[in-house]
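Risk register update: the risk of archive-format incompatibility is retired. Evidence:
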Amino acid sequence: MTTSCAPTARVARIARIDQLPGLKHALACGALLAACGLSAQTLSSPIASSPAPAGAKPAATAPGFDLPVGQGPGVHGANSPFPPLAARTDVVPWSMLTSVKTKTEKNRILPVFNLDQMTLNQKTQRIQGFMMPLDPGEKQKHFLLSSVPLTCAFCLPGGPESMVEVKTKTPVKYSMEPVVVEGRFLVLNDDSYGLYYRITDATSVK
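Archived output:
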């Protein structure tokens, strides 16, 4: 059965990312998946592989806003060969990052950050996740970290709340296993690429 979905403000958010082909492709796929509702997928926590219980309520709507709260921590495919991220006490938990709410403003979807998320801004933080390269080559200086692994080679498993853009001081070797980076964390209120979080001057941490 063919599923179709009408253009949404989330798709419009990616209109200005043509300067970064890799990022454009990745975010476009994620936006289209979100717009179509991901009805065939199951949301899961980055530190637990149990599927959502039957009859679970859809994502809540932020008070005063008319759009659902994104895609949460992302979609961990049931057949993924990679286990969910291990619990660590030295990294920012994805549950904190993905609890961001959203609002619409002039046909755009903008994040509405809570106090816990804003306290991370402009401070050194550690983030754990799965690498999503934005450039060709074995080593990367610019990539995305996702709360869950990719479900296919072309599309994202979650929305922008489940990703952090990473810019490193020195190239980091690509790995299919989870990686940890440390750097200056930025909370993005109105990013032109539709991103919610960025970490700069990052270094790889074991």
